[in-house]
């Protein structure tokens, strides 16, 4: 099967099966409904598009994900139904890339099959690990036959429904700055769910609570990857996870835009269809431009990331900032074009807005990415001048 | 030679030879200097990159132009030096595609060699042909052995230095709505230069005057393409010409951005390099994003246009609007980052701004393109719903 | 007591009493809590600031409301506690201006005292009365001793808790285009609550349902104002109601901004307080500018509206568009500055965003107001030119 | 005469006399034409509106300037004709406030009469005094009977036509950080005009050159104000000068807006007047909003500055940033609405853009003002919390 086929099949499945099954705007998908829809997705051959076929998925390469994930994201529950929603999707990639065969058998296979759920436990309460990983406070210390983990994590999306967590911890026994990732079963002794952070998002089920680790002992084979290489391993997940968020939310933005187009096609104001009123046309055109630019950047970043991790980092920063802001604007314009139905839950648009708004903060805030983008731009120019390029800002007075 | 080689050669030629030879900011390139620089461009093997090798150029396909044209545009005089500036560049494309072999020999070969100049005489004084070609008022009537052209054209860029004009005229003898293009030598009887429109642009030399045709008789072989097919032929030129403007101005925007980067790298404010001040970083990052989005859209549109004229039209509209506005923002931010030198002619940035500002109006204004983009979006959705897609704007109250 | 005193007392009451009593972010104020807080507001002498003293309020003139309403709006429940929330507040103004003494005694006095609630039943399901009052479909027909009302209203804010509704109905017995307002008790025969529109707003309690009138007979003295003058009377309410929304949401935006300032004062990133990072400073400064511009426009519009209804209409359109958009931007920046706490309900900012977002649609959408503003601008210029001003757009070519 | 009368008289004079006498777009007013127009302004009783009547002006208080200056600014040459253009206007204020009676007689009286011109020599080549006055490098050292000034100033607007300069110099003989202002005649020994900075502005005639002082000896009575108080004295000029730029450019923005209104009133596109096309309406409405907000902020700042220098500083920073950006947007929209005539010199709009663009940099760049505005906002909030206000950013998890 070609990618194009899978895109088309996903498109039809999401629009014909998933969209009609959506819960009321602003409410999450119930577990029973998810299981039922996941079964239909498996039957339709659209389940787990990003997972290698040997682990039961559709086997797409990263550079091919965008169109499929956008189709999945056309429904806010689409990615969960197709089992390509965060945080599971990123965790599957990480397990595929760095887990042992035994770990893959034990954790990746059931996760890819939708039989289990997972979470990624990295972020900590301020001033712990957030934007700045160096501030990591959770520790794992060597004990007989394994490691004892202690610390508090926050905003651990999906934790309440997760079977397993990937936990980042400082491991001073490995090295003073060393951090290591561990696979920790959520039912293990010493793991408890804390304060539940309330959100207005619903696409990720299983809450966003704090998770406490108190003398939680795990065996040696719970180490994911190489001890001390936790941060480096996390990079494997980071870039793609950021882009898959872009892809999914871009799909949701297309849904919002199509909703607005349906509205402007038949709703009249002052005797003309909205679609022929210039102010509405300007909003529609700006959303078309935002969708086109975001899609072009995400495609470019995904292709770059396959080949060149370093160039991919800059490309994915740019794609992330632009896409997260563009989808917010597109949904906002759709809200505005749908008027009274837009600003209530008569239509799901305001709920979509609450889904996408946090993306301007998580996976690196717009401000943090802009800072990084600017620094890389300055460094790039520095290298060029060092290599002999003429300095360009010499004023006429100084010549 | 590969495209990559030509990009690199063009980059080096423009930065090492052209930039140092630029006239003072805001002043045009003198003809003698242009001839001299063009000779060096020929020697460097970077002349006429877009022209087929059989007509003396570098033979790039449209889908490969972008990187080379951006390098050319890094200097405001670069495209003229490389003989890929409007309006000649678009006229060469048109001659290549629809002229007879004799016409190509007579007009395209010397034009591609830089020995002659040309202009494109389509726009008319209001309410004649401007945004709306149906309003064309210039006529060409059958006379013995040829055609007599009468009418007034305006904003005919380059006309004062042009040897030949491509003139669009209504030809009622062909059909009531028929328009035809003619190759008219500027020295012919009945051709005169009228009111010179003053501009702040300098990249196109030869003025932007009105041109009058009064009983200007041309022979039958002056018809370019098929009689009556003038508007259809013009489309051949329109899409690519719009994109090459994008490419050139994108190159100029990169120059402005690099100038600003050079400034922020070493200029200090309140004891820190500007490059480390957040407000400057935000400006730099936004320009990086604008450059990346514009480049991605232009590349996509150029590739699309090679294969599919219809899809290319929508893609090139989106690219044109976004790029024309993005380059304006990038140059504006560079002006701001360079402070007092930015807002005077100590640096050429304000002159660059005056070069790119009109592009938000010509080749279809932002407003006209947004109108077209919105209409195509609505039509696309209309087709989807007609083909069975679910209408999405049904309110909860109506279910 | 001076206005300044009342501003200061309101400020202290809202910050010291109301803010600490707020329900969790995103949840409405319970009726019992409201009654208790209203009692304290009465004791503090800050209740019903906009109501004339003879009806039990603080007696402020419209031109003096802004500062007090902004202080009230500093808490999302502040205006309800102070009994100056929509729709009651606008209804009180209407009753004060056009009701009979008997109607005022019966409806205004208990409403001003907080003993009853009210709603304003004008909007209808599409294509009925929304932006375009001419489309009004609800009718009131003369019957023996009164009027029989039939029709459906939608988005009737507060209807579920209201004791009385002001209902706009077409009255063909008065005249072909005539509309009349009626005071209808919600418990009357023929009044029923229909579909409840779900919203993410909580500041107005009592829902936003559809309300059905089926052969609802009211006596003659239920007419509010003059029969047939319904639309003219509604104007009395419209301008001020639009501005009081501005004032209240401006207060809420100040609260969001202060929340962000508290965050940037002590939260560090990369070793510096956020308050010293330029990107954060740019966001803070833009919010300061938005708050200052919005406040200046609202003050100006309120003062103008006191003296000159016509000039006030233009001033209040401009104030409404700008303020509704500015408060959205200010809250959005606060969300962004507060990062992870901003995009969850750890802080109430996202809930504030959901409160203010609909204001870009109700009371005339941004698009409708822009249309009106542009038309008035063109008409103003038309009058100037008619009165002899020189036409300014003559091109050099035409001189 | 009331202010209203003067506003009206100025309006009529500028529109009926000055606008028709404007030189071609983008070219400066010739000295002879200026003198002739100034004579007519004197006869019309509109000359030097800001100068106290005892010095020959119209005697307006600062709080009343805005409307008159806006009318003056409706023509780019209006302020020069009315003798209320920078830098003379700010210099007159400074002389009025801090000069001795003898200095006023000698310098202010002829300056107010339009018989002489002046410049303000404070800015220096980087890294000297620019945004940061502490970096001042020009010095004045005590010599027998006076002071010897040495140093280089840059961007000294009007210097080539000026009779006298107000020069800021470091005076180490007064104190280690002390700076002092001097009145220096431009013909004095040791004063020479250096590199002329080319600009695209034309409203200030007399160039923007560097000015060199080499052992330029001035007598003791050349000290303006108190020795060592130079920076404090400069503040007297700074706030009002910033606001008068706002006022004048706001007037020019109104002119651009009226020009666009004239264009949209009669120019048709696709068979409708532009004025009825929504995209044009959106541009017109946004400009109305920008003009209204800018005017409201400038008025507020001017009134505040009369009473309270400290509050005035914050108000004038906000007004300056907003107004400088708003006028740029208004002119830009007018350019766009006038299409091909907008982006050439067929209309003066592009020249207006070049007049107003630098204002986002001089008198404190947008970035510097945003930085200052943010710092003052944080400090304001700091004081409030210190005085007992509740800290607002406490997260739910921390309660």
TrEMBL record, chains A, B, C, D:
Residues 5-114 form the Acyl-CoA dehydrogenase/oxidase N-terminal domain. Residues 119-195 form the Acyl-CoA oxidase/dehydrogenase middle domain. Keywords: FAD, Flavoprotein, Oxidoreductase. Belongs to the acyl-CoA dehydrogenase family. It comes from the Bacteria. Homodimer. This is Acyl-CoA dehydrogenase family protein. It holds the Pfam family Acyl-CoA_dh_1. It comes from Isoptericola haloaureus. Residues 228-377 form the Acyl-CoA dehydrogenase/oxidase C-terminal domain. The keyword Flavoprotein applies. The keyword Magnesium does not apply. Its cofactor is FAD. SUPFAM superfamilies: Acyl-CoA dehydrogenase C-terminal domain-like, Acyl-CoA dehydrogenase NM domain-like. Gene3D superfamilies: Acyl-CoA dehydrogenase/oxidase, N-terminal domain, Butyryl-CoA Dehydrogenase, subunit A, domain 2, Butyryl-CoA Dehydrogenase, subunit A, domain 3.
């Amino acid at each position: 099967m070609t990618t194009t086929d899978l895109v088309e099949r996903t498109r039809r499945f999401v629009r014909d099966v998933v969209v009609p099954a959506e819960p009321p705007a602003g409410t999450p998908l119930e577990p029973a409904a998810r299981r039922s829809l996941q079964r239909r997705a498996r039957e339709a051959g659209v389940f787990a598009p990003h997972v290698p076929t040997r682990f039961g998925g559709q086997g797409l390469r990263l550079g091919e994900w965008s169109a499929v994930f956008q189709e999945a994201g056309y429904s806010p529950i689409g990615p969960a139904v197709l089992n390509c929603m965060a945080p599971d999707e990123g965790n599957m990639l990480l397990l595929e890339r760095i887990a042992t065969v035994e770990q893959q058998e034990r954790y990746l296979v059931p996760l890819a099959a939708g039989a289990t759920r997972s979470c990624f436990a990295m972020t900590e309460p301020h001033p712990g690990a957030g934007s700045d990983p160096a501030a990591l406070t959770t520790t794992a210390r060597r004990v007989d036959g394994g490691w004892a983990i202690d610390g508090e994590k926050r905003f651990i999306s999906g934790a309440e429904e997760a079977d397993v967590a990937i936990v980042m911890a400082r491991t001073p026994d490995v090295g003073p700055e060393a951090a290591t990732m561990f696979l920790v079963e959520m039912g293990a002794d010493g793991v408890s769910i804390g304060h539940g952070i309330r959100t207005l998002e619903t696409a990720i089920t299983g809450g966003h609570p704090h998770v406490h680790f108190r003398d939680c002992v795990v065996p040696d084979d719970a180490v994911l990857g190489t001890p001390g290489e936790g941060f480096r391993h996390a990079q494997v997940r980071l870039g793609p996870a950021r882009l898959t968020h872009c892809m999914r939310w871009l799909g949701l933005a297309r849904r919002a835009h199509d909703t607005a187009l349906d509205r402007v096609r038949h709703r009249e104001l002052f005797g003309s269809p909205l679609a022929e009123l210039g102010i509405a046309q300007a909003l529609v055109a700006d959303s078309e431009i935002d969708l086109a630019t975001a899609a072009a950047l995400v495609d470019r970043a995904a292709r770059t990331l396959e080949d060149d991790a370093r160039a991919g980092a800059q490309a994915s920063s740019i794609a992330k900032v632009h896409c997260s802001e563009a989808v917010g604007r597109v949904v906002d314009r759709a809200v505005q074009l749908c008027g009274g139905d837009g600003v209530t839950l008569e239509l799901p648009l305001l709920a979509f807005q609450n889904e996408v708004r946090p993306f301007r903060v998580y996976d690196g805030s717009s401000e943090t990415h802009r800072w990084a983008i600017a620094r890389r731009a300055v460094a790039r120019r520095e290298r060029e001048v060092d290599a002999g390029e003429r300095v360009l800002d010499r004023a006429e007075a100084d010549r």
